[in-house]
Amino acid sequence: MKVGMITLGCAKNTVDTEIMLGELRAKGYELTNDPARAHLLIINTCGFIQAAKEESIASILEMAEWKEKGVCRGILVSGCLTQRYGQQILEEMPEVDGVLGTGTLGQIDEVIKRVLAGERVLAVADPAYDYDTAPKRLRVTPKYSAYVKIAEGCDHRCSYCAIPLIRGAYRSRDRNSIIREVQDLSREGVQEINLIAQDVTRYGLDRYGRLGLASLLQDLLQIEGPAWFRLLYAYPTHFSPDLIDLMRKESRFVEYIDLPLQHISPRLLREMRRPDPAQPVLLDSEAVTLEPRHDAVH
Description:
14 strands; 11 helices; disordered C terminus; globular; six-stranded parallel β-sheet; alpha/beta
């Protein structure tokens, strides 16, 4: 049984794809990047903004054509779009045979078997997937680079964003689980570790009652192998002085921060209903103003 997968959206969605691919490989499926050879095609969708929804729907319809011109026997749809609109997708898109939500990644083998038996399947539940117990991933990134999801979900209710509906409340992973994953990646020869979450700087607050990113990073820096660490999706509210100090002193951090530009504007923050205040960051008793570098804006 050959399975092909299309991945849309952000790096966090890429990690979900890798988890599903790892599960499929462990269950004995053959993976292919040629839709003409795939008996089953999976589209892991994005549903963050309207353009992403339209791209996801277009990809579903494009892959569904292989039912007529290839050997495809089923179309599965997963990801953010299905978590929010799973029932609607099944009702309005007869091309789709099965739907997986963001919290039911582990059911992929079961859903495939039900689809191949002729059933149309809706497998959407609570989005709280447990990444600490996820199977070994099959990475799709270059061999020298890997994403490591340290948390999932979001507790904010910004005016424009549906992430809390799609991914659930903010949930930090167990730090020992993260450390083991980075150790495994190091043994595989990965040189660049990209730590990702909806907000990496909030890591640990929900699980341990305190901000824990700087402490986690100090443990990860003890692992031999990775040459670079990168933080993706950081926010100023919890960008603590100890984190800034650690990044300043440690040469293995990439000189890069993925920080939303709108945080320089109090007006935009109010209109977005984002709780983050526009405040300076205190470091060594000095006020460090976070201002955009105009020569770095593309």
